[in-house]
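Q: What would this chain look like folded?
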Amino acid sequence: MKIHAHAESHVVELDDGSRWQIFPGDLAATLNWKPETDLHLERSGDRVSSHVLVNATDRTRVRVIAAGEAWPDGEVKNALKGG
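A: My prediction, written as C-alpha cells:
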C-alpha cells in the first residue's frame, strides 16, 4: 500500500482509504516516509497496538491503531518508559 495522505504527523491515510494513528514513540520512524513508500499492514500481538505498518524497503515497524480509537490506558506511558 502507498501513502495517500500524511498531513498530520500522527495519522496516515493509505491508498485503500484506511486511516491509522501512529504510536507516539514511533513517530520518528515516519519522518522519511514519502508518498511512494511501500507499506504493509500486519496484525500485532502487542498490548499497545492492534496493527503495525511495515516499511517494505527498510523493514522498520510502526505501531498503529485505527484513527479515532484511543490508546490503551497506561500502556502508552509504560511503552514510552521502556516497560
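DSSP finds one helix and six strands in the chain.
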